[in-house]
Amino acid sequence: MEELVIGVRFKKTGKLCYYDPLKYKFKLGDNIIAKTDRGQEIGRVVKIFKKEELNPNIEVNKIIKPATKKDLEQQKENENKAKEALDFCRKEVKKENLNMKILSAEYTFDLSKLTIYFVSEERVDFRELVKLLASKYKVRIELRQIGPRDEVKEFATLGMCGKEVCCRTFLQNFDPVTIKMAKEQGLQINMSKLSGACGKLMCCLKYEEEAYKENLEKLPKVGSLVQIKDQDLKGKVVSIDIIGLKVKVKFGDTREDEYFETYDVNQVTWDNNK
Asked: From CA 136, how far away is CA 90, in angstroms rounded?
């Protein structure tokens, strides 16, 4: 019998975890209960693999059981309890004048742990708050500080493209995004236009980086002297169309006789070392 491994996510854009389905047969969209580093949690099956397809170094754990209708109802109750804890925590933070913004709270399925997420621009001593929460709710408490990008994931937010931000819909990891990427894509360096809802450089600058780099290698640099193929003409590159693989060339030495022409990159030759 073919051995299968299920890929499970415990959050919409959370990392993919791998589990042995044991004797159970799952289909995409089914809910399961499994043990994670946070405790017991309910997750959703999003992929199904043949075991031999996986990298042997991937850790495959065993599920506890499929989630029943009763389990899903329990999860809803847990979410309501987490909302109550969230409200209480916000009141205490305001009361104690702590410089932190409480964003969300969540219980593990087995109610063994309550995690509260917050953002702050400085280091916060929240030890007394943890003691108070532990005393009130009688569970293990974790206050987890997150960054501005993770903060945006907590709310339904539209990006500059008019769609919901990527980090909330599908993006799982935050790869480094740099100004160099914007420059390579020929974008004007205007931080207000290049920044996303989180205030950081937009993650989508990373998506086409490889394509732009590949095309840039096929193009002369701005300022290069180029020879027009099959013509006794030489000119200077004044701009490049990275996506269209075209160059705009200036001819003429004086303002009176200068003129411009646009060519496909395969119509010109150049030496970038000069």
From this structure: 14
